[in-house]
Design brief:
The chain is mainly β. The protein has a domain of 55 residues. It has 1 helix and 6 strands. The strands form 2 sheets. A 4-stranded antiparallel beta sheet has the order 2-1-5-6, with no helix packed on it. A two-stranded antiparallel sheet has the order 3-4. A hairpin with a 5-residue loop joins strand 3 and strand 4. The two termini are 22 Å apart.
């Protein structure tokens, strides 16, 4: 599912230059949800991230229709591959 590599493949995003994850392009989402296990894995790999608790937990509908409850916010760097080339984003 996720791998450590140097560049994202089509349909993947590279998070903090450490972990590649699948993504759903043009989902219409207002935010990005990253599983806490992935955040913990990146921290274990030496990534530095500022994790802050949300004032109130929020529920988000993720790809596939599942509902997850989010308790924290984190800012990460995201790299994705598009037809126009590589795009670097900073997500919160």
């Amino acid at each position: 599912m996720k791998t450590v590599q140097t560049a994202p493949q089509p349909g993947e995003v590279m998070v903090n230059d450490l972990v590649a994850l699948p993504y759903c392009a043009d989902s219409g989402s207002d935010s990005t949800v990253i599983p806490r296990g992935v955040v913990d894995e990146m921290l274990a790999l030496g990534s530095t991230m500022n994790i802050s608790p949300l004032a109130e937990p929020i529920e988000a509908v993720v790809a596939g229709g599942s509902i997850v409850r989010c308790h924290d916010t984190v800012t990460v760097d995201i790299v994705l591959q598009t037809a126009a080339g590589t795009v670097h984003l900073r997500e919160r």
